[in-house]
Specification:
Length: 346
Amino acid sequence: MKTSLYRKAWLGVSFPLILSLLMGLLAFTPPQQVNAAATPLEDLPEDALYVPGELVVAFPPGTSVRSTRAQATALAGEVGAQVTRTYAHLALLSIDPAADVTALTDQISAQAVGVYAQPNYIYRIPKPVISASLPSTEARKEFIASGEAVEMPWQDLVTMKQLVRRGGRVQSIPIVPNDGEHAWGWDVIQADFIWDEKAASPLVCLPDTGVDYRHPDLLGKVIKGPDFYNMDNEPEDSHGHGTHLAGIIAAKMNNGADTAVGTSNGKVLAVRVAGSNGWANTFGIAAGLYYCSNNKSVRVINLSMNPPSRWSGLFRPGLWHQRQRETGRGCRRQRRPQRHYGLGAR
């Protein structure tokens, strides 16, 4: 009888205590990033400069997620907007599509100390330069000791081997991989065959259209990062450009499948920032670059996007240079024509 009374008394005291502890834990749950539907870029006209009714705001670097949400909500209330998305110290605000976004972003940047704003500009994957025909892959130019260029047929090259010493043993290694015959790019840039090099290359972060990480030539070569286009954790490629680049960077070699360029023995970190039409926006690219630059394993960031024709600069005041100043890590921007041969989305 006493045991029953003690059990009832313990339950009467412990249940409210447990409930209050649970409520306290919920109160201190780390805030989540805001993730609401944004305007699909596929629905915009071909000549669109930025997403109507959307602006990107960058608060000072180091601003917590909770503070970013609070400041973004307060700012949105002042200008009659809504917070659509947040990531780190970045926020995407939505207003009336007919509003003058450029004037509003100038006003915010001028009035708010340490805050930078710009329209949600649109960036596009460079259009491929289509050649009338592929370069010849029947023979490869090789430079002999005298400096003379000699064309050697592939059928001869694939039978040649070199002797290398590894681990105290001498191994016979083919000079060319069995999937390198159609890698005409090697001839164009006169690259040496070093495909059997075992040293690991630095991790390359690839903010692009995502990567088909199930592709046979990329199995085990892709690390899945976030998808800042759909705001999820599935950077699947629905366009093909990101997979194409991943193949150039890290495709498996000497496996008799497709073709391989052999530029890297490392891996790629796939970060999706663009949609199925190859378009991206300021918020997605800025979030992707911020994510890449904060990953300590990343040493190279490959971004292949054409900026808008009338462009205020993603790489100016706040969205990217803030992080560059904070970490001392930046990236070199290069623009060059691209020829789209190689891996594609399946």
